[in-house]
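Structure ticket #2291
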Amino acid sequence: MPSIVDRNEQRYVGYRATVAFDGMAEVAHRIAAIIGALAERGLQPACAPFLRYRVLGTDMQTVTVEAGVPVAEPIDLGADYFNAALPAGKYAQATHHGSPDGLFAATADLLAWGEKEEVRWDRTVEADGEHWAARLEIYRTNPQVEPDPANWDTDLCFRLAD
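Resolution: structure written out below.
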């Protein structure tokens, strides 16, 4: 069952791309690259990595998405990466247990719950699609520790409008 949670601002190092939905793996693999680059500098992620959906294209064929790894302080990892912060505020949160294949249905369930509860998402609709302030998939399970996707936990956290 979804709940409303307060989240603090969270710094992260990210990688952003606009891809077709079938190109999401390309962006998701950047999480491991960022974690590896941090490890080379003797640093650990400050929290669980995530994907941040920025723009869902009007044709639902493209998405602008960020792979993000929380950090304690900004760090320069090169031209492909940037430092940013997730905004503080109230978020609707639901946890999906199982393979990432189930995230589409879990997202639909969270959006339906939000409609039923009459929550206002922090998003705008523009000519090129839906722009979200913070629509997150937070990967709580480390696949190196738990290789079976059936045992993975992913939090869906969508920021509410102020």
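Closing remark: The longest strand covers residues 10-20.
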